[in-house]
Design a protein that fits this description.
The structure is a homodimer. Chain A has about 400 residues and is α/β, with parallel strands linked by helices. Chain A has 2 domains: about 150 residues, Aspartate Aminotransferase, domain 1, CATH 3.90.1150.10; about 230 residues, Aspartate Aminotransferase, domain 2. Chain A has 12 helices and 15 strands. In chain A, strands 1, 3, 4, 5, 6, 7, 8, 9 and 10 form a 9-stranded mixed beta sheet that branches. A 4-stranded antiparallel beta sheet of chain A has the order 11-12-15-14. Chain A has a two-stranded parallel ribbon with strand order 2-13. Chains A and B meet through helix 1, helix 2, helix 4, helix 5 and helix 8 of A and helix 1, helix 2, helix 4, helix 5 and helix 8 of B.
Chain lengths: ~400, ~400
């Protein structure tokens, strides 16, 4: 558990990290980009057509900040069936991907000096949002069962300025670990006890490769302190820029108003196309296909790491999601290695630890995405990376 | 010229105002909704098809925060030909409508207590953004040639905490007035002298019904202090949620980073569909059609007002855009009138003055949108409204 003071925004820029893809020899494990071969192109094209044909000119008009009711109703059904959350359409707001949900929740809760609990490491795009508010970060360390909830309890007891707990409980970004059911219940209870909001960021939940996932934290939320966030980016297409949040009415009202000020509303054409897709296609069959392909890629990467990485590099074995987290021996700066050796000499990219911790002392980790490359590229890339690491350590 | 202290956010909610449309007898002049009959439905549907067919699966992937390069290049051409601004694609960022551009610029510049100059009255959605920062508002009054630039000069000389001048120079929302060329030049010079940013919000520029419009303020901007904002909402479709801003690099870099944190990027499918539309369709021919229809509606509303409104109600005669502004005798609260009489008894809606001033003392004005209703509805609605006002004053 580390307590830190307010930190100025770092020069972390998602676009910069993701632009390594311009080198034709590059094998990039950096971006959390879905496999483009798995986008249901024909079905999505048909969904846009159906949406425009059925809705007519109304689809091109202004609509509401909360977002299309039909789509919210479908999502409420899904919250009940897939997340064990008794939400209705009235409890849901549609957002520009999960990212906007994080941004709006931060806007609602944070002022300079507010306390934010984050997992160490955590999702770099969330840090990018929180940094704007110059918060006090409180990092909670992770083990195989997710964030250490005893650390969380101690922090909440000691720091009443904490307003927000940010967690990615399912196949976490960047470590791939999953928060255990008993800890989820504890997080919900602590949030209720200390009247702190939990932002449960769950874009990978459906991408489970080893069977079932524990209930959501929101499922255990009796005090209305958990805001659940998810997205179509990983299970359908990130270019739809469509996510949703589920929140208690006392938060939802403010969030709808903040959404209105931010961009009035989401693009109705996208929302109605997704609604058509969900009405005519079996999204769970599509997700099952993603699972099969991504499971193989995960297994390929784990096998290659086992084979090619030096033995003093440790790594996680995720049960789902997009990412494996590798920890290099202490003293190796994965960021410097990326910029000086991995990208220019070995044409390999990953996201280095410096992007994923609020406190830049942890620099010996790397996030490896296994979903964007083919199995053959994964093996080739990990072999290259392993050779580089073996020469180094 | 009015100087005011920090103000708490009012309960202004665009969604609430626009939901008056649920009454079937309602004739609403409230929302700034384009005429849905003018949406180019078939061409937009084809544009989505073409975009998906030509780009293939790449269209569904993550892209960049700044937005699609092809579309930015087309917009740079348009900035040169229609706005007399020598911008390149590198100077442009795509946004979720003009609203997101306003929101990101405010996020970049404002902190509690910062000074913001606004026109009195001004666009209610901009107030909704600025209110979050609890700024000091400095209102500048308007005449037939737009904002009073002598007042502006005096404010800038006296209040160094002013960070932002917000103006809608073309067919202003809500008054319909247009800032004269000589005043535009003065605004740009004052911004340079005092190192203040001008947010030139220009969504109505193309909708001119009486001939040419003065050059943009950005055209006179030699110091890079003017950020130009526009949108496809009024000239194509608001449901595309696509706008753009043109800014000096020192501002653009920050704005791109803020956009990334807010929602990562705009939906690539929408951006590529607009790019297809602009490539296969003549948008200026489409705009010429909008002008013809909206000119007739404006004329219809002005004729009806002349005929049916009591003589002690004054009103503007806009040369373009969406709105006429009517001023009732002092002492009549247009907001109370709306809630108590106009909506429940007369089934007429407008946006009352209280929404459009930072200082709620000006309550005797109403914004009347002439674009959403048919000419017959306009005449019927203005007759009803005139009867109500005649009985009242």
């Amino acid at each position: 558990m580390t307590v830190m003071q307010t930190k100025q925004p770092e020069k972390i820029n998602l676009d910069d990290i993701l632009s390594y893809g311009n080198d034709p020899e590059m094998i990039s494990f950096a971006g959390g980009f879905p496999d483009p071969k798995l986008f249901p192109e024909a079905a999505l094209k048909q969904a846009y057509l159906d949406a425009i044909n059925e809705d007519g000119t109304a689809i091109f008009q202004y609509h509401t900040a909360q977002g299309d009711l039909d789509l919210r109703e479908r999502l409420a059904d899904r919250m009940r069936s897939h997340c064990q959350v008794a939400a209705t359409a009235a409890d849901i707001m549609l957002t520009q991907g999960g990212q906007q949900a994080i941004s709006l929740i931060a806007q609602m809760l944070l002022t300079p000096g507010a306390g934010v609990v984050i997992e160490a490491p955590t999702y770099l795009g969330a840090l990018d949002v929180f940094n704007r508010y110059q918060p006090h970060y409180y990092e909670v360390s992770m083990d195989e069962a997710g964030m250490d909830v005893d650390q969380l309890a101690a922090l909440l007891a000691k720091h009443p300025e904490i307003k927000l707990i940010y967690t990615v409980p399912d196949f976490q970004n960047p470590t791939g670990t999953t928060l255990s059911a008993i800890r989820r219940q504890r997080v919900a209870e602590l949030a209720a006890k200390y009247q702190v909001v939990v932002l449960e960021d769950s874009p990978y939940r459906d991408l489970s490769y080893n069977g079932s996932v524990p209930p959501t934290i929101k499922h255990f939320d009796q005090a209305g302190q958990v805001i659940y966030v998810s997205s179509f980016s990983k299970i359908l297409s990130p270019a739809l820029r469509t996510g949703w949040l589920v929140a208690d009415q006392r938060y939802l009202k403010t969030l709808i108003s903040l959404k209105g000020a931010s961009d009035l509303q989401s693009p109705q054409i996208s929302l109605r196309a997704i609604n058509q897709f969900l009405s005519h296609q079996d999204i769970d069959a599509h997700i099952a296909k993603l699972r099969t392909v991504y499971r193989e890629k995960r297994d390929t990467m784990l096998t290659a790491i086992e084979h090619y990485f030096p033995k003093n590099v440790t790594y996680t074995k995720p049960a789902g999601g997009f990412f494996i987290w590798a920890t290099l021996p202490v003293g190796i700066d994965a960021g410097a290695l990326l910029a000086d050796v991995a990208v220019p000499q070995n044409h390999i990219a990953y996201v280095p630890a410096c992007c994923e911790f609020a406190i830049p002392v942890h620099n010996n980790g790397m996030r490896l995405s296994f979903v964007g490359c083919s199995p053959a590229e994964i093996t080739r890339g990990i072999k290259r990376l392993g050779k580089m690491l073996t020469e180094l350590v």
